[in-house]
């Protein structure tokens, strides 16, 4: 019979055996205290060995990012709710920089800048992480931008063509369709191999939801990733959002894949950085922005590149968005971004209110790379389009004064109005390369001049089904297709003339 004393002795012996198996070694833990906290930033004391961009762990599980190293204190951006952090509470150094999960498991998901799910599903099953700050590829690791990135918008692909690995700024006043242009470019990749990453910074939840819903309805969401730091997110998360998303995109680029990243928008990102910098009492500069405001965006956008074949040959194309006030593209942040990027797509409020959508001002828009990347079959048809459109705009202004014009000028104006009608396009309806080629051929050969102006939209709407039925080879045109031969132009023109007659006959029937 086992007595209580025997049980106690046995329990003590087992406890000693377990303690004896433990390997005890000293562990260093760096602990400081919160001196001040508020408005998404915290001032920490007692951590002299903290390095820049190190992650600090506050009581309650909130993390912060060390962004300002003083002699005795550290300024931190909080990556969580500041209400959970109190003055006097403990804060621990981790010795690690901020890292985010990367990999294919992120595709099709909506996450925050730290990779945590926002779509109500389980966390992405990723196997690796990468620092949010990465050096841009060196010059020797880059290759020339030679392959086009089709947006599906005629005004962009014909006049302001984009290349894979380019950085093209989308700029304009609020409510002029900047995000719509970028979303159409994402939707158009449903038939390509390009992976798309959308970053929402400081946007309303309803606006971000509309973007996600549009891609799910019209695009290929399984090859898209949405990184969201909305208007209600802590300033720290809004600050790291574009860098974290760029790291997630770079993982695909390192695998030799092509990636498109849309950053919506860098104006709000700059405002968040100004807010945090002023709270941390950094010296303000022009318009109260800190002195390194140019550097924070240049080091981000320089990460967009076309890699050399030895590095896998992948590419990262960036479409950052910036907002102007009253069309002032010479303001501080817009001029900074224009000087960093390889061109800009400027959206004019006047064109938008005249219902010319997308409201791209061709005169103020430019692509400093895309001319070398434009598909040869499209380049031959679009090379004179910009000049013809500019001449039309000048003539149209002249005729508004009521001056008499000759027949040649009238024909030029009527042709120009059809150019403008072709450049207008409905949202969520990007055109394939073959459809754009057929449309521009109809424009250059005068096919559209034979139909009423108000039927140009009907011609464009009927173009895709007509080509599938009568000229399916036209829809197989891709980036590698050379300029159309004389026979190809003649056959395609004949088919387009038949479509124009059908559209014109429909107009007469409706009038009858």
CATH superfamily of the largest domain: P-loop containing nucleotide triphosphate hydrolases
The major pleated sheet works out as:
8 strands, mixed
Query: What is the molecular shape?
Result: elongated
Structural class: alpha/beta
Structure description:
With 512 residues, the chain is an alpha/beta fold. The chain has three domains: 31-97, Elongation Factor Tu (Ef-tu), domain 3 (Beta Barrel); 101-374, P-loop containing nucleotide triphosphate hydrolases (Rossmann fold); 380-511, Lysin, CATH 1.20.150. It contains 15 helices and 16 strands. The protein has helices at residues 4-21, 154-159, 178-188, 205-218, 235-254, 266-279, 293-301, 332-340, 349-353, 376-382, 385-399, 407-423, 433-444, 456-470, 486-511, and strands spanning 31-38, 41-45, 54-58, 63-69, 73-78, 90-97, 99-102, 110-111, 128-131, 169-173, 195-201, 224-229, 258-264, 315-324, 343-347, 366-367. The strands form three sheets. The chain has an eight-stranded mixed sheet with strand order 8-12-11-13-14-10-15-16, sandwiched between helices. The longest helix is centred in the last third of the chain and has 26 residues, at 486-511. The model has no long low-confidence stretch (mean pLDDT 90).
């Amino acid at each position: 019979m086992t007595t209580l004393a025997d049980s106690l002795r046995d329990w003590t012996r087992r406890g000693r055996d377990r303690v004896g198996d433990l390997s005890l070694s000293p562990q260093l833990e760096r602990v400081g205290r919160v001196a001040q906290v508020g408005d998404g930033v915290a001032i920490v004391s007692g951590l002299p060995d903290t390095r820049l961009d190190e992650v600090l762990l506050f009581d309650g599980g909130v993390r912060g990012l060390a962004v300002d190293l003083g002699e005795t204190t550290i300024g931190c951006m909080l990556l969580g709710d500041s209400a959970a952090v109190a003055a006097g509470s403990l804060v621990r150094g981790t010795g690690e920089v901020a890292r985010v999960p990367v990999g294919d498991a992120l595709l099709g998901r909506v996450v925050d800048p730290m990779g945590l799910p926002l779509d109500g599903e389980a966390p992405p099953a990723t196997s690796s992480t990468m620092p949010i700050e990465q050096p841009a590829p060196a010059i020797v690791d880059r290759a020339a931008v030679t392959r086009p990135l089709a947006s599906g918008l005629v005004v962009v692909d014909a006049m302001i063509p984009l290349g894979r690995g380019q950085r093209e700024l989308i700029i304009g006043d609020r409510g002029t369709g900047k995000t719509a242009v970028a979303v159409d470019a994402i939707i158009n990749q449903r038939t390509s191999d390009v992976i798309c990453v959308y970053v929402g910074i400081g946007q309303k939840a309803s606006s971000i939801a509309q973007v996600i819903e549009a891609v799910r309805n019209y695009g290929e969401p399984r090859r898209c990733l949405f990184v969201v730091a909305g208007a209600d997110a802590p300033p720290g998360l809004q600050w790291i959002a574009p860098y974290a998303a760029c790291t997630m995109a770079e993982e695909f680029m390192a695998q030799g894949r092509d990636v498109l990243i849309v950053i919506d928008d860098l104006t709000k990102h700059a405002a968040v950085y100004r807010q945090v910098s002023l709270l941390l009492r950094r010296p303000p500069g022009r318009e109260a922005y800190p002195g390194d405001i140019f550097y924070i965006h240049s080091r981000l956008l320089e990460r967009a590149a076309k890699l050399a074949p030895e590095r896998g040959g992948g590419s990262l194309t960036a479409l950052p968005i910036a907002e102007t006030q009253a069309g002032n593209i010479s303001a501080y942040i817009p001029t900074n971004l224009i000087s960093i990027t390889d061109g800009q797509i400027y959206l004019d409020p006047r064109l938008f209110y005249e219902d010319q959508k997308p409201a791209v001002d061709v005169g103020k828009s430019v692509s400093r790379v895309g001319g070398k990347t434009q598909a040869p079959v499209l380049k031959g048809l679009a090379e004179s389009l910009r000049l013809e459109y500019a001449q039309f705009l000048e003539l149209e202004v002249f005729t508004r004064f009521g001056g008499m014009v000759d027949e040649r000028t009238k024909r030029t104006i009527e042709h120009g109005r059809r150019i403008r009608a072709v450049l207008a396009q409905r949202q969520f309806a990007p055109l394939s390369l073959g459809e754009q080629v057929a449309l521009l051929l109809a424009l250059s050969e005068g096919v559209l001049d034979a139909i009423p102006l108000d039927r140009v939209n009907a011609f464009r709407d009927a173009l895709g089904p007509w080509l599938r039925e009568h000229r399916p080879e036209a829809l197989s045109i891709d980036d590698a297709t050379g300029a159309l031969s004389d026979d190809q132009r003649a056959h395609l023109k004949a088919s387009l003339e038949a479509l124009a007659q059908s559209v014109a006959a429909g107009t007469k029937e409706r009038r009858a």
